[in-house]
TrEMBL record:
Belongs to the UbiA prenyltransferase family. CDD domains: PT_UbiA_Cox10. PROSITE patterns: UBIA. It comes from Penicillium atrosanguineum. Converts protoheme IX and farnesyl diphosphate to heme O. This is Protoheme IX farnesyltransferase, mitochondrial. Residues 88-129, 506-529 are annotated as: Disordered. Keywords: Heme biosynthesis, Membrane, Mitochondrion, Transferase, Transit peptide, Transmembrane, Transmembrane helix. The lineage of its organism: Eukaryota, Fungi, Dikarya, Ascomycota, Pezizomycotina. HAMAP family: CyoE_CtaB. It is a multi-pass membrane protein. Residues 88-102 have a biased composition (Low complexity). It is found in: Mitochondrion membrane. GO terms for biological process: heme A biosynthetic process. It holds the Pfam family UbiA.
Length: 529
């Protein structure tokens, strides 16, 4: 057995020696001068001040008496001597670590990233650790999918790949100015409203009056309406691109537009916008009526010179843009109503504010309400681009309100769809189809509001709006009021109405009396047809 004195004097870790001195301090017995000198020299070696209070020794006072001390070895103080060699190795490693710490460059080269992160995490405060874990979770979350390039960007890429003198290069560049997908969407809403107009209500009582539109005249009007609406929409979109190229260059979604990339000059875009507006409005005036033409012209001015500059001023621009989207269905309805003069729709007031124009306003209301869930979800996905370009959009100005507005106008789809059925524009089947489509939209809008656009809710609402609108418009055409009456009668064997049901009066100068009361039609609604 090694004597205690020799164990103390042998070189080794000073921690157990310090613990032994703790016993002397704790016992309040003044040690001999030789031991006091030994303790003071030990304190100097371990870095403990001579006047340090004795409370610091209380942490390790009973450590030598434990079965397993702070060194992790069994046997307490005496076992530490047996591990002198290992302690010397650890001292050598600590000495090399101190030398490494003196040279930061070598530390960076030798230390692995994992060991540095582990050491930092061990000495990290609890609240900072919680914050770091929260940020790590948010960083590791599934990122939002990047929106695919729009049709204008794809056409611009195709145009730039063509030879400089190629006609396809010019055609693709100018066609990209029209925003093809948006223009075709506007065209779909206009022609759908035209097809939903109840032509059966144009039946007249006097055969001498202008007859119903024939197939040739209605088809010609449809062609004029289609071409005029598309060209007018192309003009509005071109003016929109021409007025903000420097802001489009700041956004990932719009920096590939033809004016930004130099494929089309601003002067060329201006001439293109004026030409398409002139031809489009001329076709609408010749083929439809002045009221439809005036609505189209107002839409061009509203989109290009009110909505476009307002985007950098106030969030009200979204509501103005919704009005722009709601006008095309009203144009299609009025174009259908103006095909005959027998209905009394010979002034713009009659066409816009008569009882027969309710269906057009309801279809316009569907497009007005649809703009908010569609655009608010889209703008949330590219909110950083809008903020960088300085566009005042709810997606970054007030994200909570952005989600509430999308949900609010999604719910508005239900009463508007019921209104189309209530005013005999569509049949009962439309209620079933629109309920499912609107329910899907509201469900995604609720998720968008609940998660504030996170967890893929913004993209889900965007695609729900993309499919919901065609379902409503095509469903309205399929379930148009009176469209399936003949099929229903043939299927169930119901007799058709007598074609000679209407009552005509002969001229009194011929001396022929009018028909009797019993020969009058049974339905009182014929007088209002």
């Amino acid at each position: 057995m090694i004597p205690l004195r020799s164990a103390i004097l042998r070189p080794g870790p000073s921690r157990e020696v310090l613990l032994g001195s703790n016993c002397l301090v704790r016992s309040r017995v003044q040690p001999p001068s030789s031991i006091r000198g030994f303790i003071s020299s030990t304190n100097r070696r371990t870095g403990i001040a001579a006047n340090q209070p004795s409370s610091v020794f209380l942490k390790t006072y009973f450590s030598p008496n434990r079965v397993v001390d702070a060194t992790g070895l069994k046997g307490g103080f005496l076992s530490s001597y047996a591990s002198a060699n290992s302690d010397n190795i650890s001292n050598a490693s600590s000495q090399s670590a101190s030398e490494t710490s003196a040279d930061p460059a070598s530390t960076t080269e030798r230390a692995s990233p994992g060991s540095i992160a582990a050491g930092a995490a061990q000495n990290e405060l609890p609240h900072r650790r919680r914050r770091r874990l929260k940020e790590t979770i948010s960083d590791n979350a599934t990122p939002e999918a990047v929106m695919p390039p729009d049709a204008s960007a794809q056409l611009s890429a195709f145009s730039s790949a063509q030879p400089a003198t190629s006609l396809r290069r010019k055609f693709a560049a100018y066609f990209a100015l029209t925003k093809p997908r948006l223009s075709f969407l506007v065209l779909l809403t206009t022609t759908s409203a035209y097809g939903m107009y109840p032509f059966s209500s144009l039946l007249t009582l006097d055969p001498a009056m202008t007859p119903l539109p024939t197939l040739s005249t209605s088809t010609l009007t449809f062609i004029y309406l289609t071409m005029g609406t598309f060209l007018s929409c192309c003009s509005a979109n071109t003016l929109n691109m021409m007025l903000e190229p420097k802001y489009d260059a700041l956004m990932t979604r719009t920096r590939n537009r033809p004016i930004v990339r130099g494929l089309v000059s601003r002067r060329g875009a201006l001439f293109f916008a004026i030409g398409t507006a002139a031809v489009g409005l001329g076709l609408l005036y010749v083929g439809t009526n002045p009221t439809t033409t005036a609505l189209s012209a107002a839409n061009i001015l509203l989109y290009a010179f009110v909505y476009t500059p307002l985007k950098r001023i106030s969030v009200i621009n979204t509501w103005v843009g919704a009005v722009v989207g709601g006008i095309p269905p009203l144009m299609g309805w009025i174009a259908a109503a103006g095909q005959t003069a027998t209905t009394g729709h010979d002034t713009w007031r009659d066409m816009l504010f008569s009882e027969g124009s309710i269906g057009g306003w309801l279809l316009g209301g569907i497009l007005f309400a649809w703009q908010f869930p569609h655009f608010n979800a889209l703008s949330h996905l590219i909110r950083d681009d809008y903020k960088q370009a300085g566009y005042r959009m709810l997606c970054w100005v007030n994200p909570a309100r952005n989600a509430r507005v999308a949900l609010r106008y999604s719910l508005l789809m239900f009463p508007i769809s019921i209104g189309l059925w209530w005013f005999d524009v569509v049949g009962h089947g439309f209620l079933v189809g629109s309920t499912f489509a609107n329910g899907w939209l509201v469900r995604e809008a609720y998720r968008f509001w609940q998660h504030q656009g996170a967890q893929g809710s913004a993209r889900g609402l965007f695609w729900a709006s993309i499919w919901q609108l065609p379902i409503l418009l095509v469903g309205g055409l399929v379930t148009k009021k009176g469209l399936w009456d003949g099929v229903w009668r043939n299927a169930f064997g119901q007799p058709e109405e007598d074609e000679e049901e209407y009552l005509y009066y002969e001229d009194e100068e011929e001396g022929v009396e009018g028909t009797t009361e019993t020969s009058k039609p049974k339905s009182s609604s014929l007088s209002t047809a």
